Queue: 4 jobs
Job 1
Amino acid sequence: MSVSTEASLAKLFRLLDGSVGVLMQHNGRDKAMSAVYYSLLFCAGRINCANTTDKLMTLAKQFSSARIILRRFNDLPLIGANFIHFIHPPSDENDRICYDLQTAINVLYTIYSPIEHVAWLSDLKLLPFNASKWSKYSLFVWTSSLILSIVRSALLLLRMQVESKTFEEEDARKRLADKKKEELLNILSFSLDFLNAVNFLPYKGFFWAQSFPLWTTGLFGFLASCINLIKLYRAVK
């Protein structure tokens, strides 16, 4: 076996190993299903064949339902993440704003989960509530959390930009550059999700609400999902 072939196989193995590591995680499977779901929406919006579009949308709904069911098990991890967050307050006052923003984000996601529980059970006719109304509430909470997430990542990026001017060691600069790339990916992912979140709002005429064609929603969601998968892949390598 040639050296180039061995190198190619080693790269393939690392890619496979990293992909398995991502899909072994709950978040990795969720983002993978999200990528498939939004890619189906994109294809359904671009294909000019009603029969094919209906089939793609039927398949997309299955992936959406699977993600909704998986999210029903998010409550305990959310409680655990909140507990860890609250017992580790920042020692530096410069970190306080970002910490408080993360606290608000955590609270919003903690609120989001039971609201979506009610919406899901109401949609299944197991609770006597208006499923559309509760879905709207969950959408408001999600949109709010995305706004705060964008602001937090932007503040972190700005602070790292200032700090980079004070670092002289090459290793420290490299670590900071990696963190900056991570926050840039976060901002891009949150922004793409925010574009879709506003579009999903049931108020036509409010900014771009209800104005995106199906393929645009699919494209933005697919890109956001892929960014999150890339971040997870880099984390497990």
Job 2
Amino acid sequence: MVASTDPQVNGRREEIEKSRREYEKSVVQQYDTDTKRKFYSAVMGDGTDNIHFGKWEGVDVEKEGAYGEASARMTDWMWKRAMSISQKKAGGGKVQYIDLGSGTGAAARLICKDFPDVSCTCLNLCENQNAENMAANTKEGVDERVEVCKGSYMELPSEWDSRFDGCFSQDAFVHAFSKYSAFTEALRVTKDGGWLVFSDLMKGEASGVSEEELESFGQTNMVADWLTPTEVCKTLTEAGWSEVCFEDLTLDIKCSFQLMLKKVNRLLSDPQACKGIDLDLLETYRNNLAKRVGQVDRGVFKWGCISARKPYNTDEGKKRADLATAHNITRKFGMDELVWNHMSSRLQDGGFLITPGGLLFDEITPHDLHKSSTNITADIIHAAVYDARPDVNVVIHLHTPASVAVSCLDEGFVPLAQEAAPFYNKVAVHEWEGLSDDLDEKPRLMEAVKGDSRVLLMRHHGFCTLAKTVAEAWVLAYYFDKSCRTQLEVMKASGGKLRRPPASVMEKASQQIYLPEFAPGVCEWEALKRLAARGQKELCR
């Protein structure tokens, strides 16, 4: 976008930026002075550095340290939600995320200590909190995986474009000067298909609550952009996020307020316990907390968790959808092998999408597909094809019984009928070397698929179809498996004698089959997508 040359527009922008920076200084004052840090540690810390609102299910509120336990449970609950969205699961490859408004970094430490393949960038306005964060990271041994940066989530560095697998924020967006700007910045630094998960305090939607009361609550808590959950979700969608979902956890925050009020009363009744804490601040907070417990029931505000996904680019989104369809219909046609076998599609920006593993094929959704596989066999086979064949964009590798049986015959595959025409002189062969778990096999796989083969028959193993699109690759796989079944039936019926069609006829048929209106996938794919969609509707019911 070209910057405006209109002095009035530029002047207005500068005025807004000045207001934002002044507002953020006030936010720092609310959290980062010695007085406020001691106060929050005493009232919400509960012996830990996690001062967030908690998830109370299963927590004994009378137990010492209950507030800290509930705060940690909320972090864990949010992380599980993030991983349910993520295309890169913790434990299945490196995950790099950013915590927007990270405070003292308690959430990042909790997550990174549990998952060694996760790294976090903590972004926070407050210098003292950041120093505390870095010291705690060193003490806990996660300093190499938790980076701490001073800054505002309203203005993220340009070099962070599409850097992170996801964005996490626990009770911090409430202080966003502009929710829309904060959400667009988060979108910018997130990779395509990445996630956003945050908990936050929001304006209530109940009838009978006055605008004055809502505004008063917002002003008391340093809220510049006070929105309802519905408005927040709408703003996220307008900022470019998809699959936006809000889960109402307001009853949990009521429990947090009740326990905080109990702790404040205990502190005020024990001068020794509240030594070093501003008594006027405690008294003010006690009065506010007493109001808040009742305000929860009256609907003055809401608290909950919102999740969203950054849409994939057009190329990747289509390939994810087509690969998910291909997996689904492979299972419908009985061509799958439990959680094994793999399908992949090359991406425009490098690398390829591939079957995740561990899921039955009709469980796989577009978001489940990985950009890297935890199965070395899959990576070796698919990477070898893509490295050797720049014309190939999709590889489907299956172990159907008929294709494995044909791969074990001395003469291998023989095209006998019309359905086999696409494979006439287009089947490459690779000798079995045992499980494909050795990179040393890759050069021989590359050599085998050189040329213009459409199928790689892997002896005593299975086959791969090689194509430009998912539709073409899957339809080729269907007809190759069918042709193998036909060959085996003919051999069974004839005692092994095969009547081959004339070479000239098969050659002509192999060309006709690739006329634009008849090429594999052109006529069949939309119908197959409808078949897969019907299955998804049945699962939903």
Job 3
Amino acid sequence: ATVLSWFDDLIEVKKKQNEILEKTAMAIFKSWFIDFEPFKDEDLVYNEELGREIPKGWEVKRLGEVIKIESGGSAPQREEYFIEGKNPFVRVKHLTNQPCVEDADFITDEAVELHSLKLYREGSILFQRSGESLTFARVNILPFDAYIVNHLAVIPNLPSTKPWMEFSFFTLKNILIEAIEERAGTALPYIRVSDIENKIINIPPPSLLQSFHSLVEPLFQKIILNQKQIMTLRKIRDTLLPLLVFGKLRVEEI
């Protein structure tokens, strides 16, 4: 029990680290791009589309003009497609209130080919666009390459979008909170991707966006590393548990 508790404690420490890292990155995002604190002494101009003042020289665009949002693919239904599958397949149930996806199902190569599923790279950003559980603004980083179910939308991690990823993560989170609040009390268990893409946002100059990316990307990389370690620790713990319970392994041997 002591050994298993050690694994659980270490997992909780890393989860707490990820919460702190996300909050730190969010605080920087809010300071720079919502409150404009570093730019208080610069000229601000009123923008009618946003209904507020923004720093002079910043642009205002639809989110879809700067970020590509895609939908996942159809979910394999037959049980045989999950037997001895080796390809990670992320569903709505795998989204968390943590910064990262924590788990996945695994599907066969045949399922991938049959449903023409697209593989998304580690670091892509996921959010829920439909389903009965659409009551929270869960935006997750993908900590491993995976295929994605069609109830989820994806901002692919591509070389061309890399400077935008952290900015997009927090912008998207704010947009989803607003969109879900607007649907509160309705029977609409979905969000149109087009509605998200049409949201008007302020766009900082490229040099400022790059500075934010350079500052915050190491925090996101640490979050992903922590999540990989969490998954490894869970796997080891779950492997040890039956061995300890049935006396096939003694604590002294670990």
Job 4
Amino acid sequence: MKITPLDIYNKEFKKSTFGYNTDQVDEFMDDIGVAYERLLKEMNNLKDEKQSLQEKLSSYKDIEERLENTLQVMQDTVDKRIEQANNEARMIVKEAELKAQQIKDDAEKAVAQERRNFEQLKEKKNFFKIRFQTLLESHLEMLKEDDDRDYAGTEDSPDNIEFPQNHN
């Protein structure tokens, strides 16, 4: 049974002989009615405040949930970007290593080729040196033989030429 302040104010008791003092009972009932009315107003205010707070709480929970979802999406995005960046970095490093290895291999091949060229040039130089030396020796021999033939048995032969002697 729900009691209202009006029920308290309007409540009438039967009179009996030797009963309570009606003025005191009326005064006390008025005090109870005022207190009860104040409590009802306070309770209604608290219900309204509770409702408002529940709405705010619900709103904050919605905001919190959206923020958590947003943070999760951002974290997932950051994680994906970090993974992509790491993958790209690994690819760049791998490509650089491959390129460096290719440059090194090319340089080693070029050095080896230059060494072979140098050795071939040395061999050609030695070959031409020996050949030229042989040719010179051959020509000198031919010249000597030619000179020996030209002057053989003649008075102009080097064997017959007398050189003046210096007497000091």
